[in-house]
Each structure stands twice: as C-alpha cells, then as structure tokens.
Amino acid sequence: MPATIAVVSINPPTHKRSRGHWANVAARIVRNPLAMIATLILLTLIFIAVFAPWIMPTDPFATSMFTRLKPIGTPAHFFGTDELGRDMLSRLILGGRLSLFMGITPVLTAFVIGSGLGILAGYAGGFINTIIMRTIDVLYAFPSVLLAIALSGALGAGIVNALTSLTIVFIPQIARIAESVTTQVRRSDYVDAARASGANAFTIVRAHVLGNVLGPIFVYSTSLISVSMILASGLSFLGLGVKPPEPEWGLMLNTLRTAIYSQPWVAALPGAFIFITSISFNMLSDGLRSAMEVKQ
Amino acid sequence: MISYLIRRVLYALPIMLGVAFLCFMLVHIAPGDPLMSILPPDASVDLQKQLMELYGFNRSYPVQFFSWVWRAVHGDLGSSIATGRPVAQEVFKAVGNTLMLAALATLIGFFFGALFGFVAGYFRNSWVDKIASFISVVGVSVPHYWLGMVLVIIFSSQLMWLPATGAGPDGSSSWIWDFEHIKYLIMPAVTMSFIPMGIIARTVRALVADILSQEFVIGLKARGLGEFGVFRHVVKNCAPTAMAVMGLQLGYLLGGSILIETVFSWPGTGFLLNQAIFQRDLPLLQGTILVLALFFVSLNLLVDILQTVFDPRIERA
Amino acid sequence: MTDERDIGGPRQPLLQVRNLLKHFPLKGKGLPFASARSAVRAVDGVNFDILKGETLGVVGESGCGKSTTARVLMQLIQQDSGELVFDGETVGSRALPLRQFRRQTQMVFQDSYSSLNPRMTIEDSIAFAPTVHGVTSREANTRARDLLARVGLQPERFAGRYPHELSGGQRQRVNIARALALEPRLVILDEAVSALDKSVEAQVLNLLLDLKQEFGLTYLFISHDLNVVRFISDRVLVMYLGQVVEIGSSDQVFDQPKHPYTRALLKSMPSMDPLQRTMEAPLAGDPPNPINPPSGCRFHTRCAYAQPVCRQRTPMFANDDSGHGVACLRYEADTASLFASEVSYA
C-alpha cells in the first residue's frame, strides 16, 4: 500500500550543521603563516588607504621650491619630498587610495561580468557557448599589457578610461575560467539529478552551479589583483592613467624618474609600495588556492 | 593528427581577422573625429579631402575595414603623422630590437626559472622549496618598471658599471655583438627576465612535484633506477610543457615590452608605441599594435603545433 | 491496493518503451566539412515494457547501452526517435508534460559521491526536488528528515552533514532518500549498488526491497552483477550492443536461457561448485565496436552456434506464450532447422 510519506514532525531535532566549506577554508588559511602575514599587511594598507585624509601629516599638494627633493629622514618630511617639494609621506598615503582602487575595481567589475558570461556559456553550451567564447578568444589573443595600452592609448588618459581598459583586459581571463569550471560542474551527476527532478535552468544554476563555481573563479580573480595594480600603475607611469597632480604610486614613479640621480631612494619609494602590496595579494591568493585544494 | 593541425591553423584565421578588426576599431573609439586625429590641426581643406579619400572615412565601415586590411596585407600600414615615414618601415626596424631584448630575457628567465622550479619541486616542502618558491613569487609580483629603475640606480648611478639608457653608443642603427653594445642590453634584459622567471619557476615546480608524486616513479625506483635516471625521466616529462610556457612568455614579452623600453629608452616597438601614444599618432599606434598582436597569435599557434607534434601524450580529438 | 495516481489499471504496463533510438555522432575526426560522419549506436531500437509493481532487471556487458537507455528513460538525454508511454500517456504530450513525468520517475546513480552536491548538506540535497515543485522549504526539510530516518540514517546525526563526511553506503542511502522525495512511482537504479562493499550492498538491497513494498514502487534495476539481479528481479532483460536480445521472468532467463549470449554470460559466472568448472572460455573476443556493429545478427561474431545465415539476416524479437522473448534465428520458424540442436560447452 503506497503510504504517503507521513509528515510526522519528530520533536525538531537539534542536529548540528557541520562546518561549511568556507569555514574550513578560513581555518586552513589561519594556519598558514605566510598568508597571515600577507593578510596583515593588506589590512594595514587598506586601513591607511581608507583613513588617508586623517592620517596624512601634511597637505600632499603643497608645493615649495625651497624644499625640493629632500632625502628620507628630513625632519618634517619623514620620507623626503618630491620634485615639486611636496611631502612624500602624505603623497604616498593618499596615493595608496588611488592605487588600491585602480587595482581592485577592474578585477571586481571583471569578476561580475566575466563570471556572468562564462557561466552562461558553460551552462548553455552549444551555439551560445561558441559565440561567447570565440569573441573572448579574440580579446584573449592580445597580450594583456598590449591590450591595456592599446585601449588606453585610444581612449586617452584619465581614471575612467584606464579602469575601462583594464576591466576589458580581465574579462576574457575570468570568463574562460568560469566557462571551464561551469562545464565541469554541468556534467556532474548531481546536476543531472537536479534536472531529473524537473527544475528549470535558472533554479539549477542558482542552487547547484553557483555554489560550486564561484569559489574557484573568485580565487583566480584574487590572483589578478596584483597584476591589475601593476598594470594600473604602469599606465599612470606612461601618462595614461591618473593625471597629475593626483598622487598615485605609478604616476609618482614617473614624475620622479628624473630624480633618480639626485635622490634615488626617494624616487624608488612609490615602487616599493606597489611591490609590497602586489606580493601580499599574491601570497594571499596562493594561500587561498592551497586552502581550497585540500582533498576533503 | 594532421587533421587536427589543419583545423588549428584554420581556426587561427578568424582570430587574426578579429584581432585586425579590433585594431581597426581603435581609431574609431578614440574620442573625436578620426580624421582630426590623423591630421595636424592646421591642415588645409584640400589635404583633409585628400586624406578622407585615402582613408575612406566617407565610405561605410565594412569597406573601410577591408581596404585597410587589404593594404596591410600588402605591407602598407599608412604613414606616421609625426615623422611622415611609412609605419611598416618603422615597425619592422623596431621589432628587431625588441625581439633581441625579449629573446634574451626569455632565455635568462627560462634558465633561472627552470632551475628554481626544478629545485623547489624536487625538494618539495623543504626550506629549499620555500626559498625558491618565494623567489618565483617575487618574480611575478615585482613591478618590472620599478625594478628597472632600481637597477639603474644601483648599476648606473651608484656603481657606474652599466649605461642607463639607449641601445648603443651611437644609437640603434648600428648594432654589433660586442661588449660595448651588449652593455646596453644587460639591464633591460635582466629586468624583463623576472616575469618569465617567476612564471616558469611556478610551472616547473608544479610539474616536477606532480611527476614525482606519481606512483610509477616509485615503481621505477623499486626496479633499481638510480637518482640520475629518475632525474632524466622527470626532465623528459617536464620539457614539453616547460618549453611551451617559454614560447608563450616570449610572445607576452614581445607585446608587453613598452614599460621596460620606456625606462631604458630602448628603441623597440614598445618605445615606438609610447611615442605613438603621446603624439596621438594613430596610424603608428594601429600599425604597431596590429603587428605585435599578429606576432603573438602566430607564436601561440606555433607553440601549439610544436606541442602536438612533440608530445604524443596530448590527446587531440 | 490502489494508488490514486493510477490511471490505466493493473494490466497497463507502467512504462512502455517503443523503438528507442539514440546515436551519438562522432566529432569529425577529419576535416570540418568531410562527409560520412559515423556514430556510436548506443541504443539501436529498444522495445520493452515495465509492468506495475515489478522489478525489471537489466543485464549486459559494458557498452551495451544500459546506462544510455536509463538516461533516455529519464529524459536526461533526448532520444533520436521512439517514444515512451507512461501509464498509457505519451511522455511529453499535453496529457503528460515532461515536468509531471519527472515527478513520477526518479533515478539513483552509480557514483554515490558525484550524485550529491558537495556544497549542500544532505538534508538540503534531499529537500531540493520537492521545493522545485512548490513544497515549502519547511515542509520539504521535514520530509527530508523523515526519509533519512526511513532509509536508516538518524536525522539528528546526519541531516546537517556534508557528503564527504559519509561512507559510500551511507551516501547511497541518501541518494535513495533523495529519489523518493518526490514520491515517484518508478525508480531507475543504474548500477546503484555496484560500487559498494558486499556487506553494505546486501543491506542496501534489503532496504530497497522494503521500500518497494512500503511505497508500492516499481524498479528498473540495471547491473552487471548477475547474482544481485537474480536476487532482486521479477523479470530480467538482456541487452547486447544497443539492442534487447532476451527478456523473461528471472527463473526463465537464469534457468532456461534461450539466447546464446545469455547462455555465455551465465556460463561465465564463477561457481563455488568444483563439478561445474568451465573448461573453455564461453565468450570469445572483445565486444565489437558500437560504431560499426556486425551485419545481420550482431552477436554472430562471438556465437558458438553461428551459421552463415546469421551474417545475412537480422533476427526479429518474438515472445512465446509464457512471456519469454528472444531475438535469435534459432527460434525463428523458417531458420530453426539450420542449426545443430545443441552445442555443448565441455
């Protein structure tokens, strides 16, 4: 006799949920010393960037022809002054804001757009996949530096233009990963089981695909942040990104180039900061990746 | 396999067309009238009309595109606004210089990268691995234009061992492979080698670690294969992929050399691009980018073909 | 004993499979526009009925098309031609749209791990299907916990766990619970116990039998393990290279096999009885290629009884009065005389 499954509610049992996937990942990262150092550095930098206006010792735009190119350690200008007499420490702090912003924003935007395109291509398959991926292939056929410069060069200098060209550079890379991971997930038995239960594509993507796919895409994207920072600063270095007198680390490297003979260490400072930030992002990204790779 | 190769080559053609299209569009996404970008501001009406005819801005887009491609295929990439010389000429002169730089940088990067990566993979998880891995992370994270500046500070300004800029005591037109000239090549090449070094080190490390962890290596050792034999075996298995990565890095450096060439005033395509951007010299910009991008696509194609031919394990449907 | 969803009555087969065809075209190994593309003929004209309340076993070698048939039955793959009739209604027609069919037919897969979303707790995995069909999530979760209890996993301990924290046998129980969440009438079990240890397998088989009785289910049980199939099935179907070669009750097929392939399969089962040792390998050679099957009767290349006519003529499937059907020229009226009466295996 077919019994309708009795909806007997047993006293709502206090079953505990096991630690979810991300909690496990976080736990593993905490145990990785390099990743923790990197996180610490990044948090400090972000903190400084956010609270820059209140942390800066003096006005980063105040020029003075008398105090040009003072060395590191000058009283009142701890990190020296630049070629227009502006305080380096203040400019570095304020510049961090813009540099970090230009590094993170394109990757974030590209993450959203690239994932969307890649997941669509990966799940839909067939004709849609071909169209999307072949178009992406054309963009991917350019070395990223070249593409960034070509687009920036054509659009002209300016923050928005630089952000746009960098986003376009990263979308193909993220979309490829997204498509590849989505295709894998699409083939798995649990997606078939979900299809077999009558769910439509939207529901399946929301409930089953996204949770399994966004993780790897996200980790890959974090590895792009350091590239983005270097490229963005590079664009400013060439005069294509941020325009003076806004402080930005790459732009500062450019304007200080002539000073490498008179005040080499002051001139090298902005680049050192780009380096530290970039390497921290990379170490964090590596830590994330190995934390996610551990076989359950 | 032949059919795969043919299909791979055929597949590259629409990509190249797409690339050309993108280069073509660069002029049109630039703000302002494309004609105005090409002409000096005080050009006469007649000159404007002439160029309008020549570039065909008064014709429809597809026609413009195809006539541009047609001319490009025949070696005519237009003329530089700034110098008036044919773009193709400028570009090919510069490509040689960049190729020299990129090839040397790739070789240096490959040598050290493979070394570090190999050592790291062989002695996995030991302190040797950690140091070697750290060096490769540095390679990938360092802003190379800054590194160039630092090297100039150290070796040109402070120590005065090497010249800071340029490609030779009397310019780039006369290059001889002697020490006088090579002095100019060293710093830019070393600076540029950091990126491929980092990437190749990571790749090789992963490959070596993967091969060593496979069970058949244990089987080989159990049958008495000595350390050197295992070593040779690992090298044989890594080599195809490592070479492929090296090839790709070369292509990447060719396209991405602008920053280094700016720092060192090396007269290559990157330097040319820099000029083109600052002078809003759009034909030069377009032509240079087209040549570089096509180079990159062809290099990728070559690497792919060589990989298929030399590595029989790759299953190509 | 009536299921309120029953339309056709007890005589109506639950599922009728008619002339199912599914070929997988091979990606052009040649140049893009070359003609003569060949295909893997995975399912090549399959006909059978699944009766209400029975367990129909399906056996055959790897590559014979069992799994593909199962997936076509679930409509996870669309057949190239042929139709499915569920309780008298054609699947996909206005009377029985696909979504409704899916409520009544569910499947349990072979790989217990990949059938479960690694990021979902097992309670949520089981509750997913009902929520798709409009059940509130609270009620779906309650139903999920009840089902867990019913398959032998205590809800308090297991509901909040993730798949990787369970053993293979436990995961398969979860998969069964998941299949039952929609209260289906037909459950397809595709090698559902093949990957389990023997002792666990026995437990799961007994569970399946209990559930079948309790919920009035019908099973299609696919397996390559003949002993298990015999234990659990009422009727058995034998497949070879994408076609049905024999069908009959469990006793008929195992004790009086008609088709030479069935006989060879049964002979190849290892026996504990020293008197039953086989002196020669009953089946010669590897299974031929499903891309280019042999002409005439597909089995003729490995058949101990083969005659020249077998290469030329394709046998038609025919049932005798007791419902024991076979596709073999030895049983067809006009060719039966061409064959020797018995070929004995030593």
Overview of the molecule:
Chain A has a single domain (33-46, 85-291), classed as MetI-like (MetI-like fold), CATH 1.10.3720.10. In chain A, 70% of the residues lie in helices and 0% in strands. Chain A has helices spanning 21-30, 33-50, 52-55, 88-124, 126-140, 144-155, 159-186, 189-196, 201-237, 249-255, 264-293. In chain A, helix 2 (33-50) crosses helix 11, helix 4 (88-124) packs parallel to helix 11 and helix 6 (144-155) crosses helix 7. Mean pLDDT of chain A is 84; it is low at 1-15. The model of chain B has no long low-confidence stretch (mean pLDDT 80). By secondary structure, chain B is mainly alpha-helical. The longest helix of chain B is centred in the N-terminal third of the chain and has 36 residues, at 87-122. Chain C has a single domain, classed as 3-Layer(aba) Sandwich (Rossmann fold), CATH 3.40.50.300. Chain C is globular, with a radius of gyration of 22 Å. The termini of chain C are far apart. The mean pLDDT of chain C is 85. Chains A and B meet through helix 5, helix 6, helix 9 and helix 11 of A and helix 1, helix 6, helix 7, helix 10 and helix 11 of B.
Brief digest:
The complex is a heterotrimer of chains A (296), B (317) and C (346). Chain B has 13 helices and no strands. With 317 residues, chain B is mainly alpha-helical.
Structural descriptors:
A: mainly alpha; MetI-like fold; 11 helices; 70% helix; elongated; disordered N terminus; B: 317 residues; mainly alpha; 0% strand; globular
Distance between the termini of chain B: 9 Å
Count up the domains of chain C: 1
Query: Strand arrangement, largest sheet of chain C?
Result: 6-7-8-3-9-10-12-11
Q: Look at the structure and name the CATH superfamily of chain C.
A: P-loop containing nucleotide triphosphate hydrolases
Distance between the termini of chain C: 50 Å
Structural class of chain B: mainly alpha
Average pLDDT value of chain C? 85
- Please indicate the percent range of residues of chain C in DSSP E strands (runs of 2 or more): 15-25%
Q: In this structure, how is the largest beta sheet of chain B organized?
A: none
CATH architecture tag of chain C? 3-Layer(aba) Sandwich
At the first level of CATH, the class of chain C is Alpha Beta
Radius of gyration of chain C: 22 Å
Strand tally of chain C is 12
- Describe the main β-sheet of chain C briefly: 8 strands, mixed
List the secondary-structure elements of chain C in sequence, H or E: EEEHEEHEHHHHEHEHEEHHHEE
